[in-house]
C-alpha cells in the first residue's frame, strides 16, 4: 500500500509541475521579466533596446519557453507512469484517485505561490477543502459488490 501512495503523491506533484511549465511556456512574458530581474539583481550590464541593441533577455526567453514546453511533455509522461504504478500497487483505484488529486491541488497552490506569486484567498482554500472532503467521502464509501446468487441444495 505504501508504494501506491508514494507513486500517487508523485503523480499529483508532477501533474502540477507540468501545468506550471505549460503556463511558463505559453504564458505572457513572465520568463522575460524573470530574466530582466535576474540581470538587475546580479549586476549584469544592461544594453538599451532604444539604441538598436538587444539584451540577452530579448532572445533568451525563447529557448527557456522551449525548455518549459519539453518539460510539460516529460512531466506528463513520467506522471502517467507513476499513476499506473500507483494503480498497480494500490488496493483501490478510488484511493489512488483521491491521493493524486489532493497532491495535485496542494502542489499547484504552492507552486503557483512560489513561481508566480499567486495568493489564494480563504475562499479558494475553502473550495479546495470541500473538494478534498468530497473525494474522501467517495473513497470511504464501501463499493457495492454484486452478490452472487444463493446456491440451492439439490436433494
UniProtKB/TrEMBL annotation:
The answer to whether keyword Membrane applies is yes
The record's SUPFAM superfamilies line, in alphabetical order, gives:
Multidrug resistance efflux transporter EmrE
Membrane spanning residue stretches:
64-83, 122-138
Tell me yes or no: is Transport among this UniProt entry's keywords. Answer: no
What keyword terms does UniProt attach to this protein? Membrane, Signal, Transmembrane, Transmembrane helix
Give the superkingdom in one word.
Eukaryota
Q: Where is the signal peptide?
A: 1-18
Q: Which PANTHER family match?
A: TRANSMEMBRANE PROTEIN 42
Name this polypeptide is given: Transmembrane protein 42b
Amino acid at each position: 500500500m505504501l508504494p501506491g501512495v508514494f507513486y500517487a503523491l508523485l503523480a499529483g506533484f508532477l501533474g502540477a509541475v507540468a501545468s506550471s511549465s505549460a503556463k511558463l511556456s505559453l504564458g505572457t512574458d513572465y520568463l522575460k521579466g524573470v530574466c530582466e530581474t535576474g540581470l538587475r539583481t546580479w549586476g549584469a550590464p544592461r544594453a538599451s533596446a532604444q539604441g538598436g541593441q538587444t539584451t540577452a533577455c530579448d532572445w533568451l526567453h525563447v529557448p527557456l519557453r522551449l525548455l518549459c514546453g519539453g518539460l510539460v511533455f516529460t512531466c506528463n509522461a513520467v506522471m502517467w507512469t507513476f499513476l499506473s504504478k500507483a494503480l498497480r500497487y494500490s488496493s483501490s483505484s478510488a484511493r489512488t484517485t483521491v491521493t493524486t488529486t489532493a497532491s495535485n491541488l496542494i502542489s499547484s497552490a504552492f507552486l503557483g505561490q512560489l513561481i508566480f506569486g499567486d495568493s489564494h484567498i480563504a475562499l479558494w482554500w475553502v473550495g479546495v477543502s470541500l473538494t478534498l472532503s468530497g473525494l474522501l467521502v467517495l473513497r470511504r464509501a464501501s463499493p457495492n459488490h454484486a452478490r452472487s446468487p444463493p446456491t440451492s441444495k439439490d436433494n
